[in-house]
Amino acid sequence: MEMIHRYERFFLGSTVVILIIGMVAVTSSFFVNDLELPSPVDTVDPATFTSEPPFNNPGLFQVGENEYDAIITAQAWAFIPGQITVPVGSTVNFKIGSVDVVHGLIVHGTNVNLTIVPGQISEATATFDEPGEFLFVCSEYCGILHHNMAGRVIVN
Ligand SMILES: [Cu+2]
Predict the structure, then answer these.
(1) 129 CA → ligand 1 middle, Å
(2) Ligand 1 centroid to 99 CA: how many Å?
(3) What CATH topology corresponds to 42-155?
(4) Nearest to 74 by CA among 40, 107, 102, 108
(5) Ligand 1 centre from 152 Cα, in Å?
(6) Distance from Cα 143 to the centre of ligand 1, integer Å
(7) How many A from CA of 115 to the centre of ligand 1?
(8) Cα–ligand 1 centroid distance for 139 (angstroms)
(9) Would you list the domain boundaries of the chain?
(10) pLDDT per residue as tens digits for the range 41-100
(11) Ligand 1 ion local residues (Cβ < 5 A)
(12) Average pLDDT score over the chain
């Protein structure tokens, strides 16, 4: 006499197969799509980091032939600077910190998706191979005017 009904055995087996497929899909996506977990690259004093380089002078700085550092501060309810312009084919290293509460940074059309925690500097890199305007928005609710917290990367 069977201990487990054959239908039950079938669904238990199917569950294990689906779990294995899911784990392989998630794990391989890190290599295939070049994903990486966002992690703080540096810690700072949120009260004073805007008076020290590089965050005392936010903006776009060319660091290579086609490479730029975008030094951005996030605050309720704006990114400073709110607009950056780069040539087609540029690689942009976003370096961003918050002066007040938790904010987020999503750059549409790229893999950039950061949480910006006060006291931490967050970094992500994107390459812009197509001309156009790429909206970036705050992705963490940060107060009554959160919906106004946005900017643009203009690629020309
Ligand atoms: Cu926000």
Answers:
(1) 28
(2) 13
(3) Immunoglobulin-like (2.60.40)
(4) 102
(5) 15
(6) 7
(7) 10
(8) 6
(9) 1-35, 42-155
(10) 788 887 888 888 889 999 999 999 999 999 999 999 999 999 999 999 999 999 999 999
(11) 138, 142, 146, 149
(12) 92
Give the DSSP per-residue string, the chain.
Answer: --SS-HHHHHHHHHHHHHHHHHHHHHHHHHHHS--------EE--TTTGGGSTTTTS-EEEE-SSSEEEEEEEEETTEEESSEEEE-TTEEEEEEEEESSS-EEEEETTSS-EEEE-TTEEEEEEEEE-S-EEEEEE--S--STTGGG-EEEEEE-
CA 7 to ligand 1 center in whole angstroms: 50
The pLDDT of residue 135 is 97
Query: How many of the other CB atoms lie within 10 Å of CB of 132?
Result: 13
What pLDDT does 138 receive?
A: 97
CB 106 within 8 A of CB 125: no
Q: Is 90 in contact with 96 (CB distance < 8 Å)?
A: no
Q: How far is the centre of ligand 1, averaged over its atoms, from the C-alpha of 148 (Å)?
A: 8
2 phi and psi angles, rounded to 5 deg: -75, 140
